[in-house]
Amino acid sequence: MENYLVYKDQIEGFREVGETVKTVEKIAASSIGRLRLDMANIDAYQTNIGHILARLSLFHEVERPSKMTGVPALIVLTSDKGLTGGLWRRTIDEFLKTARENYEVVITVGSRGEKYLKEEAIDPTQTFGSDTDALHYVTDGFRSRRFARVDILYPKFISLADHLPTIVPFLPFSFDETQRVAAQPNAGGIEFGSPIVEPMRALPEIFDRLMRKFIDAFFQKIAAEGKLSEFSARTVSMEHASAKTDELIKALALGYRTEHRRSLTQKQLESFIAHKVV
Predict the structure, then answer these.
(1) DSSP collapsed to 3 states, the chain
(2) What proportion of the chain, given as a percentage, has pLDDT over 90?
(3) All domains in the chain, ordered by first residue
(4) Most exposed residue of 18, 25, 41, 194, measured as fewest CB within 10 angstroms of its CB?
(5) Confidence (pTM)
Protein backbone atom coordinates (compact mmCIF):
# COMPACT_ATOMS: atom_id res chain seq x y z
CA MET A 1 0.00 0.00 0.00
CA GLU A 2 1.24 3.52 -0.76
CA ASN A 3 2.35 5.45 2.34
CA TYR A 4 0.15 8.42 1.53
CA LEU A 5 -2.95 6.20 1.61
CA VAL A 6 -2.25 5.48 5.29
CA TYR A 7 -2.43 9.21 5.96
CA LYS A 8 -5.69 9.39 4.02
CA ASP A 9 -7.26 6.65 6.14
CA GLN A 10 -6.12 8.37 9.35
CA ILE A 11 -7.57 11.69 8.21
CA GLU A 12 -10.96 10.08 7.55
CA GLY A 13 -10.87 8.42 10.96
CA PHE A 14 -10.11 11.67 12.80
CA ARG A 15 -12.80 13.49 10.83
CA GLU A 16 -15.35 10.98 12.10
CA VAL A 17 -14.04 11.46 15.64
CA GLY A 18 -14.29 15.23 15.17
CA GLU A 19 -17.94 14.98 14.12
CA THR A 20 -18.74 12.88 17.19
CA VAL A 21 -16.95 15.35 19.46
CA LYS A 22 -18.85 18.30 17.98
CA THR A 23 -22.16 16.46 18.41
CA VAL A 24 -21.43 15.78 22.09
CA GLU A 25 -20.41 19.42 22.53
CA LYS A 26 -23.66 20.68 20.99
CA ILE A 27 -25.77 18.38 23.19
CA ALA A 28 -23.95 19.52 26.34
CA ALA A 29 -24.14 23.19 25.39
CA SER A 30 -27.87 22.98 24.63
CA SER A 31 -28.49 21.43 28.07
CA ILE A 32 -26.92 24.39 29.88
CA GLY A 33 -29.74 26.80 29.02
CA ARG A 34 -32.39 24.25 30.01
CA LEU A 35 -30.71 23.64 33.37
CA ARG A 36 -30.47 27.37 34.08
CA LEU A 37 -34.21 27.64 33.45
CA ASP A 38 -34.88 24.61 35.68
CA MET A 39 -32.87 26.18 38.50
CA ALA A 40 -34.75 29.47 38.16
CA ASN A 41 -38.12 27.65 38.25
CA ILE A 42 -37.13 25.58 41.28
CA ASP A 43 -35.89 28.70 43.05
CA ALA A 44 -39.20 30.53 42.42
CA TYR A 45 -41.16 27.45 43.58
CA GLN A 46 -39.08 27.17 46.74
CA THR A 47 -39.42 30.88 47.48
CA ASN A 48 -43.21 30.75 47.23
CA ILE A 49 -43.41 27.75 49.54
CA GLY A 50 -41.06 29.53 51.93
CA HIS A 51 -43.42 32.52 52.12
CA ILE A 52 -46.33 30.21 52.93
CA LEU A 53 -44.31 28.37 55.58
CA ALA A 54 -43.25 31.64 57.14
CA ARG A 55 -46.87 32.71 57.44
CA LEU A 56 -48.09 29.37 58.79
CA SER A 57 -45.26 29.28 61.33
CA LEU A 58 -46.94 32.16 63.17
CA PHE A 59 -49.75 29.77 64.06
CA HIS A 60 -47.78 26.54 64.30
CA GLU A 61 -44.81 25.91 66.56
CA VAL A 62 -42.08 24.14 64.63
CA GLU A 63 -41.10 20.90 66.31
CA ARG A 64 -37.46 20.94 67.32
CA PRO A 65 -35.56 17.67 67.06
CA SER A 66 -34.73 16.01 70.35
CA LYS A 67 -31.36 14.46 70.99
CA MET A 68 -29.91 13.41 67.66
CA THR A 69 -29.13 9.75 67.10
CA GLY A 70 -27.71 7.85 64.17
CA VAL A 71 -24.56 8.41 62.12
CA PRO A 72 -23.44 11.24 59.82
CA ALA A 73 -24.05 10.60 56.11
CA LEU A 74 -22.81 12.26 52.93
CA ILE A 75 -24.40 12.28 49.47
CA VAL A 76 -21.81 12.56 46.68
CA LEU A 77 -23.44 13.86 43.49
CA THR A 78 -21.68 12.63 40.33
CA SER A 79 -22.89 11.03 37.10
CA ASP A 80 -22.75 7.89 34.98
CA LYS A 81 -20.98 9.78 32.19
CA GLY A 82 -17.46 11.09 31.75
CA LEU A 83 -15.88 13.47 29.21
CA THR A 84 -15.97 16.21 31.84
CA GLY A 85 -12.29 17.09 32.08
CA GLY A 86 -11.73 15.47 35.48
CA LEU A 87 -14.73 17.10 37.18
CA TRP A 88 -15.72 13.94 39.10
CA ARG A 89 -12.12 13.16 40.01
CA ARG A 90 -11.76 16.60 41.61
CA THR A 91 -15.06 16.11 43.46
CA ILE A 92 -13.86 12.82 44.98
CA ASP A 93 -10.47 14.36 45.78
CA GLU A 94 -12.28 17.01 47.84
CA PHE A 95 -13.99 14.24 49.83
CA LEU A 96 -10.69 12.45 50.41
CA LYS A 97 -8.94 15.65 51.44
CA THR A 98 -11.47 17.29 53.76
CA ALA A 99 -14.37 14.96 54.59
CA ARG A 100 -13.22 11.35 54.61
CA GLU A 101 -13.12 11.02 58.41
CA ASN A 102 -16.37 12.93 59.04
CA TYR A 103 -18.91 10.46 57.63
CA GLU A 104 -19.74 6.87 58.42
CA VAL A 105 -22.16 6.55 55.51
CA VAL A 106 -21.32 7.64 51.96
CA ILE A 107 -24.08 7.57 49.31
CA THR A 108 -23.07 8.13 45.71
CA VAL A 109 -25.29 9.24 42.85
CA GLY A 110 -23.81 8.06 39.56
CA SER A 111 -21.32 5.31 38.78
CA ARG A 112 -18.40 7.72 38.36
CA GLY A 113 -18.37 8.54 42.06
CA GLU A 114 -18.56 4.86 42.97
CA LYS A 115 -15.70 4.04 40.56
CA TYR A 116 -13.33 6.68 41.92
CA LEU A 117 -14.12 5.84 45.54
CA LYS A 118 -13.42 2.16 44.94
CA GLU A 119 -10.09 3.11 43.39
CA GLU A 120 -9.28 4.59 46.81
CA ALA A 121 -10.39 1.36 48.55
CA ILE A 122 -13.63 2.96 49.78
CA ASP A 123 -16.90 1.11 49.21
CA PRO A 124 -19.94 3.45 49.12
CA THR A 125 -22.80 2.43 51.41
CA GLN A 126 -25.28 2.86 48.57
CA THR A 127 -25.09 3.91 44.93
CA PHE A 128 -28.08 5.29 43.05
CA GLY A 129 -28.64 6.06 39.42
CA SER A 130 -31.03 8.95 40.07
CA ASP A 131 -31.18 11.95 42.40
CA THR A 132 -34.75 11.12 43.40
CA ASP A 133 -33.87 7.63 44.66
CA ALA A 134 -31.03 9.04 46.74
CA LEU A 135 -33.32 11.73 48.16
CA HIS A 136 -35.91 9.17 49.27
CA TYR A 137 -33.21 6.99 50.83
CA VAL A 138 -31.65 9.73 52.95
CA THR A 139 -34.94 11.35 54.02
CA ASP A 140 -36.28 7.96 55.13
CA GLY A 141 -33.04 7.26 56.94
CA PHE A 142 -33.14 10.63 58.68
CA ARG A 143 -36.76 10.24 59.78
CA SER A 144 -36.01 6.78 61.16
CA ARG A 145 -32.97 8.30 62.93
CA ARG A 146 -30.45 6.07 61.21
CA PHE A 147 -28.73 9.27 60.10
CA ALA A 148 -27.92 12.03 62.56
CA ARG A 149 -27.23 14.45 59.74
CA VAL A 150 -26.94 14.40 55.95
CA ASP A 151 -24.66 16.64 53.89
CA ILE A 152 -24.24 16.95 50.12
CA LEU A 153 -20.98 17.08 48.14
CA TYR A 154 -21.37 18.44 44.62
CA PRO A 155 -19.49 20.54 42.03
CA LYS A 156 -20.77 24.08 42.57
CA PHE A 157 -21.13 26.06 39.35
CA ILE A 158 -18.89 29.14 39.29
CA SER A 159 -18.51 29.73 35.58
CA LEU A 160 -18.48 27.73 32.35
CA ALA A 161 -14.90 26.62 33.01
CA ASP A 162 -14.77 26.81 36.81
CA HIS A 163 -16.52 24.44 39.23
CA LEU A 164 -15.82 24.21 42.94
CA PRO A 165 -16.36 20.94 44.87
CA THR A 166 -18.56 22.04 47.79
CA ILE A 167 -20.12 20.38 50.83
CA VAL A 168 -23.43 21.85 52.03
CA PRO A 169 -25.55 20.78 55.02
CA PHE A 170 -28.88 19.24 54.05
CA LEU A 171 -30.58 17.50 57.02
CA PRO A 172 -31.62 18.48 59.62
CA PHE A 173 -32.98 21.37 57.61
CA SER A 174 -32.81 24.73 59.35
CA PHE A 175 -36.29 26.22 59.29
CA ASP A 176 -35.03 29.29 61.16
CA GLU A 177 -32.99 30.27 58.11
CA THR A 178 -35.89 29.43 55.80
CA GLN A 179 -38.25 31.59 57.83
CA ARG A 180 -35.81 34.46 58.01
CA VAL A 181 -35.28 34.54 54.24
CA ALA A 182 -38.87 33.85 53.23
CA ALA A 183 -40.29 36.44 55.60
CA GLN A 184 -38.23 39.31 54.20
CA PRO A 185 -40.74 42.03 53.30
CA ASN A 186 -41.10 42.82 49.63
CA ALA A 187 -41.80 46.25 48.21
CA GLY A 188 -45.39 46.14 49.45
CA GLY A 189 -44.57 44.43 52.75
CA ILE A 190 -46.00 41.15 54.03
CA GLU A 191 -49.22 41.17 55.95
CA PHE A 192 -49.97 38.31 58.30
CA GLY A 193 -53.53 37.45 59.12
CA SER A 194 -55.36 34.27 60.02
CA PRO A 195 -53.94 31.18 58.34
CA ILE A 196 -55.85 29.88 55.34
CA VAL A 197 -56.45 26.54 57.03
CA GLU A 198 -59.73 25.08 58.22
CA PRO A 199 -59.96 23.29 60.52
CA MET A 200 -56.93 24.42 62.52
CA ARG A 201 -56.11 20.86 63.56
CA ALA A 202 -55.06 20.22 59.94
CA LEU A 203 -52.33 22.86 60.20
CA PRO A 204 -49.50 20.56 61.46
CA GLU A 205 -50.06 18.08 58.62
CA ILE A 206 -50.20 20.82 56.00
CA PHE A 207 -47.09 22.46 57.43
CA ASP A 208 -45.22 19.14 57.38
CA ARG A 209 -46.16 18.45 53.76
CA LEU A 210 -45.08 21.91 52.65
CA MET A 211 -41.83 21.59 54.56
CA ARG A 212 -41.10 18.32 52.76
CA LYS A 213 -41.74 20.01 49.43
CA PHE A 214 -39.45 22.86 50.44
CA ILE A 215 -36.67 20.41 51.39
CA ASP A 216 -37.17 18.42 48.16
CA ALA A 217 -36.91 21.64 46.13
CA PHE A 218 -33.66 22.53 47.91
CA PHE A 219 -32.19 19.14 47.03
CA GLN A 220 -33.34 19.31 43.41
CA LYS A 221 -31.80 22.76 43.04
CA ILE A 222 -28.45 21.44 44.29
CA ALA A 223 -28.74 18.45 41.93
CA ALA A 224 -29.56 20.75 38.99
CA GLU A 225 -26.52 22.90 39.76
CA GLY A 226 -24.36 19.77 39.81
CA LYS A 227 -25.74 18.84 36.38
CA LEU A 228 -25.05 22.37 35.18
CA SER A 229 -21.41 21.98 36.21
CA GLU A 230 -21.30 18.60 34.47
CA PHE A 231 -22.61 19.87 31.14
CA SER A 232 -20.51 23.03 31.20
CA ALA A 233 -17.37 20.99 31.96
CA ARG A 234 -18.24 18.60 29.12
CA THR A 235 -18.78 21.53 26.75
CA VAL A 236 -15.35 22.99 27.54
CA SER A 237 -13.71 19.56 27.36
CA MET A 238 -15.24 18.87 23.95
CA GLU A 239 -14.17 22.31 22.69
CA HIS A 240 -10.58 21.43 23.57
CA ALA A 241 -10.95 17.97 22.01
CA SER A 242 -12.39 19.49 18.83
CA ALA A 243 -9.51 21.96 18.55
CA LYS A 244 -6.98 19.17 19.11
CA THR A 245 -8.67 16.99 16.47
CA ASP A 246 -8.52 19.83 13.94
CA GLU A 247 -4.79 20.23 14.65
CA LEU A 248 -4.20 16.51 14.09
CA ILE A 249 -6.15 16.56 10.83
CA LYS A 250 -4.08 19.51 9.57
CA ALA A 251 -0.83 17.73 10.47
CA LEU A 252 -1.99 14.51 8.77
CA ALA A 253 -3.14 16.45 5.70
CA LEU A 254 0.35 17.97 5.42
CA GLY A 255 1.90 14.51 5.74
CA TYR A 256 -0.53 13.15 3.14
CA ARG A 257 0.40 15.85 0.60
CA THR A 258 4.12 15.34 1.22
CA GLU A 259 3.91 11.55 0.82
CA HIS A 260 1.65 11.88 -2.22
CA ARG A 261 4.12 14.19 -3.96
CA ARG A 262 6.97 11.87 -3.04
CA SER A 263 5.06 8.90 -4.47
CA LEU A 264 4.33 10.76 -7.73
CA THR A 265 7.95 11.83 -8.04
CA GLN A 266 9.11 8.25 -7.46
CA LYS A 267 6.75 6.94 -10.17
CA GLN A 268 7.95 9.57 -12.63
CA LEU A 269 11.60 8.65 -11.99
CA GLU A 270 10.87 4.95 -12.41
CA SER A 271 9.00 5.67 -15.63
CA PHE A 272 11.88 7.81 -16.94
CA ILE A 273 14.49 5.14 -16.09
CA ALA A 274 12.41 2.41 -17.71
CA HIS A 275 11.96 4.52 -20.85
CA LYS A 276 15.70 5.26 -21.01
CA VAL A 277 16.62 1.56 -20.72
CA VAL A 278 14.26 0.65 -23.54
Answers:
(1) CCHHHHHHHHHHHHHHHHHHHHHHHHHHHHHHHHHHHHHHHHHHHHHHHHHHHHHHCCCCCCCCCCCCCCEEEEEEECCCCCCCCCHHHHHHHHHHHHHHHHCCEEEEECHHHHHHHHHCCCCCCEEECCHHHHHHHHHHHHHCCCEEEEEEEEEEEEECCEEEEEEEEEECCCHHHHHHHHCCCCCCCCCCCCCCCCCHHHHHHHHHHHHHHHHHHHHHHHHHHHHHHHHHHHHHHHHHHHHHHHHHHHHHHHHHHHHHHHHHHHHHHHHHHHHHHC
(2) 37
(3) 22-236 (3.40.1380.10)
(4) 194
(5) 0.75
